[in-house]
Amino acid sequence: MNTVTKTVHLDADRDRVFAFVSNIENLPKWAHNFCRDVKREGDDYKVVGSEGEIYFTIDADARTGVVDMSGGPSKDQMGCWPARVVGLPDGTSLFAFTCVQFPGVTDESFAADEDNVEAELESLRTLFV
Questions:
Q1: What distance in Å separates the CA atoms of residue 67 and residue 57, rounded to the nearest whole number?
Q2: CA dihedral 50, 55, 61, 65 (to 10 degrees)
Q3: CA distances in angstroms from 17 to 1, 5, 84, 110, listed in the order given
Q4: Is the pTM of this model over 0.85?
Q5: Which residue, 85, 79, 129, 95, is CA-closest to 6?
Q6: Separation of alpha carbons 29 and 120, rounded Å
Q7: pLDDT tens string 16-36
């Protein structure tokens, strides 16, 4: 399994960035390639993307800055994409997101996912200018 961590420097404090990225309803505002919409079904969330809908959760811890994002075709088949918000001494933040090549994902598709994540991190950066 391949993994690649992408980062973006954001001109905002850690608490502000954490509050934004840990809120699942903000995904369509910055993760354009992955998420076109978020919909709620009872207590569950689904992300609507180019390949259909997947169940999606965010397990976040404000104390540590961890923002683990999980998604999959069912609630018992979820892959995790670890992420973290780190506050920097100058009052800005670093957001780190790990791309994971899950079983069955081709190298070409994983490379495309990496490119999409880079574009989404750039979108996120523009929200905190």
A1: 10
A2: -20
A3: 29, 18, 10, 26
A4: yes
A5: 95
A6: 9
A7: 999 999 999 999 999 999 999
